[in-house]
């Protein structure tokens, strides 16, 4: 067998072995989050589904190799209920979940938070402005999706006909807010690029998000601000 085939075989076997924890994981019992999103732990985590009717996790490497698809049980239920709502409020839209938390919480690769199972990143849906139809082309990049850059008005820098779909993001956030409250949570904070918020709040559903008083970060370090255009970060908090 040629060397490259041996390499591909070894790579495939390694991927399968590393995927075993996700393939055999069972969601049951109560979860426990301790500490903060920036310094915390997660016990008895729930694994978000790889895919559903209108959503999918964005990267097999992140999900199966890095073990980044875990959350607190209440967050897990909130995510699924919100996507169920979006089947009606956002018909024909396919969503992507990005990083959640590691299986045991603690530090996540390339992230300062996500450490206690109460943080989730959601990919920004995109729209083809010429056809008013969802654009899925750039959602297939996996971890390379982080390299996408958008202008301060939400236009993809190298595809001028592709824009962030602010209305769909707002409808998803409204669904998350309702589902969170149904499950003993509330949205503590949303991180989204500061310069994009004006366009977001101008949409019909964005106005409803603002009326509800859902908190968006008001100031961010430059690097943090720059990278939160291709996705929006949501921190949940357990109501006591």
How would you characterize this protein structure?
α3 (73-89) packs across α4 (166-182) and α4 (166-182) runs parallel beside α6. The termini are far apart. The mean pLDDT is 90. By secondary structure, the chain is an alpha+beta fold. It has one domain: Muramoyl-pentapeptide Carboxypeptidase, domain 2. The protein is 34% helix and 20% strand.
Q: Secondary-structure blueprint of this entry?
A:
Layout: H1 3-24, E1 32-35, E2 40-43, E3 46-47, E4 51-52, E5 55-57, H2 60-65, E6 70-71, H3 73-89, E7 95-97, E8 119-123, E9 126-128, E10 133-134, E11 162-164, H4 166-182, E12 185-191, H5 197-202, H6 204-211, H7 222-227, E13 231-238
In a nutshell, what does this entry contain?
The chain is α+β, with helices and mostly antiparallel strands. It has helices spanning 3-24, 60-65, 73-89, 166-182, 197-202, 204-211, 222-227; strands at residues 32-35, 40-43, 46-47, 51-52, 55-57, 70-71, 95-97, 119-123, 126-128, 133-134, 162-164, 185-191, 231-238. It has one domain (3-238): Muramoyl-pentapeptide Carboxypeptidase, domain 2 (2-Layer Sandwich).
pLDDT averaged over residues: 90
Structural class: alpha+beta
Query: Could you tell me how far the N terminus lies from the C terminus, measured between alpha carbons in angstroms?
Result: 61 Å
Low-confidence stretches: none
Cα radius of gyration in angstroms: 18 Å
**How many structural domains does the protein architecture include?**
1
Overall CATH architecture: 2-Layer Sandwich
The profile of the biggest β sheet is: 3 strands, mixed
The strand order across the widest sheet is 4-5-7
Strand element count: 13
Q: What fraction of residues sit in β-strands?
A: 15-25%
- The secondary-structure element order is HEEEEEHEHEEEEEHEHHHE
Range of helix content = 25-40%
Shape assignment: globular
Number of helices: 7
CATH class descriptor: Alpha Beta
């Amino acid at each position: 067998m040629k060397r490259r085939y041996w390499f591909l075989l070894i790579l495939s076997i390694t991927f399968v072995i590393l995927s075993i924890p996700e393939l055999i994981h069972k969601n049951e019992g109560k979860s426990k989050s301790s500490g903060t999103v920036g310094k915390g732990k997660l016990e008895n985590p729930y694994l978000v589904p790889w895919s559903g009717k209108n959503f999918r996790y964005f990267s097999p490497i992140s999900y199966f190799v890095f073990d980044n698809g875990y959350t607190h049980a209440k967050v897990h239920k909130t995510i699924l209920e919100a996507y169920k709502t979006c089947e009606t409020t956002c018909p024909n839209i396919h969503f992507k979940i990005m990083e959640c938390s590691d299986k045991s919480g603690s530090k996540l690769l390339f992230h300062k938070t996500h450490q206690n199972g109460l943080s989730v990143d959601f990919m920004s849906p995109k729209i083809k402005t010429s056809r008013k139809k969802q654009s899925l082309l750039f959602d297939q990049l996996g971890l390379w999706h982080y390299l996408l850059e958008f202008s301060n008005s939400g236009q993809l820098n190298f595809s001028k006909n592709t824009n962030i779909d602010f209305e769909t993001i707002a409808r998803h956030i409204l669904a998350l807010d309702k589902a969170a409250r149904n499950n003993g949570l509330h949205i503590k904070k949303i991180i989204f690029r500061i310069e994009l918020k004006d366009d977001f709040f101008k949409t019909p559903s964005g106005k409803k998000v603002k009326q509800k008083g859902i908190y968006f970060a008001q100031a961010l370090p430059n690097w943090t601000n720059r990278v939160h255009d291709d996705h929006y970060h949501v921190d949940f908090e357990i109501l006591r």
